Amino acid sequence: MNRSDVLIVGAGPTGLVLALWLSKLGIRVRILDKASTPGTTSRALAVQARTLELYRQLDLSQTVVQNGHKVPAVNLWVKGEPVARLPFEDIGKDLTPYSFLEIFPQDQHERLLIERLEQLGVVVERDTELTGFTEHGGSITAQLLLPDGQEHTCQTCYLAGCDGARSTVRKALDIGFPGGTYQQVFYVADVEASGPALNGELHADLDEADFLAVFPLAGEGRARLIGTVRDERAEQAETLRFEDVSSRAIEHLKIQVHKVNWFSTYRVHHRVADTFRFGRAFLLGDAAHVHSPAGGQGMNTGIGDAINLAWKLAAVLNGAANDKLLDSYEVERMAFARRLVATTDRVFNFVSAEGAMADLIRTRVAPFLLPKMVSFELAREYLFRTVSQITLNYRGMPLSEGHAGHVFGGDRLPWAHDRETDNFNSLTSLNWQVHVYGDTSEEMLAWCAEHHLALHIFDWHPTHEAAGLARNGFYLLRPDSYVAVADLSADPKVIERYFRDHGIKPFLW
């Protein structure tokens, strides 16, 4: 236990996914958390479509979907009446196998990840705290405080800070965390209730005084309420009870609350760390970026960080890539984090701003424009693509090259399926692979066979063209299933040059 390949600090979803992915790739991990038990409250709820796609590689998607709750639509209310409905199932049915918003509470989520990790022989070390670390040569020496109060020293090749917004790792590295805190106070309550807004869909009230969102939970009549705390009550947020918050928005949505199972208040932060990597230490999840919960993006973004970093760390530790590959983690994930903070800022300000003009926009202008917007297929598709994170891409970044059809290097591979074939079936692999839609050359066949690089050839079909894929070209896919190279040729020298230029070897895990 004194030496590991990767020491992971923090056992929330981000740290657990990082540990699980690395362990599946044969990397020795050690994961610790200063909390004595896993979380028992359902903090984060939403599992987006892109996360479910990536979870296929960990054999988690089916379990999450079976044990969670599918949200088929979002409804917007104003002054006690529904004014717009955004149906996910219709919008995303040709874009992803997961054309819905999945509600899977964080406490259940963590238990599932812990269980899968234990099956691989890795146990979270509880009541264990990182107190300091130093980097020297090719490793890090870390100091830990154990449950019995004793100090312990261990060595690791790399350190991953997945330890939240108050990250010990980030503070020890003296990395700036610029941004701020919104003045509004929010409350969250898990309730048992009844009413038209308890129909299994997501509902949001754009009221002139209060904002309220209703997230359905698995089980009849169970929901998560997220609302604003305004006026003088916000000054005593720490001592508020559910009975103290305004009932106006709750009444507008015609909700009858029968029982409150959990209640808390919080302020929303928006910050991005100055750097996500310092030597052999990395920041992931809330340790690297925090933002408004608008759109249910937070946990999913942290999981995306973990998957992005995991395959790169494994490649370096397995000798299949040089350390330079790890620089791409910050480049790719920081760009997305900054864009996400800016986007959620705009949404947050729309729903929470106060004043006559803000009230006018929310209660008069928005009810008029939103139904018209969602009546257009392109607008509905844009909203779904954005919230589901399937448009997240690494275009124009160091590991992304070329384009073929409408697909560029750095893009998520588009989903293309018919009754007989599904191009996502091969994406359960943790390997590099090549996709061809149509025909390819004898040279490509021979090169991929010689280098043990999986080659999947799909007979050309109209669904491929509809998805934006090019005929007879190729797509080199990274281990996280993003497109590394898109090229119209059938020349394996393009792939060979890519691996050589980036110091990567094609390999099987």
TrEMBL record:
Pfam families hit by this protein: FAD_binding_3 (PF01494)
GO molecular function terms attached to this record: FAD binding; oxidoreductase activity, acting on paired donors, with incorporation or reduction of molecular oxygen, NAD(P)H as one donor, and incorporation of one atom of oxygen
Keywords from the named record: FAD, Flavoprotein
SUPFAM superfamilies (alphabetical): FAD/NAD(P)-binding domain (SSF51905)
Domain FAD-binding residues, every copy: 4-343
Record bears the keyword Plastid: no
Gene3D superfamilies in the record: 3.30.70.2450, FAD/NAD(P)-binding domain
InterPro entries per UniProt: FAD-bd (IPR002938), FAD/NAD-bd_sf (IPR036188), RIFMO-like (IPR050641)
Keyword Flavoprotein appears in the UniProt entry: yes
Cofactor(s) for this UniProt protein: FAD
Protein name: FAD-dependent oxidoreductase
Organism in which the protein naturally occurs: Pseudomonas frederiksbergensis
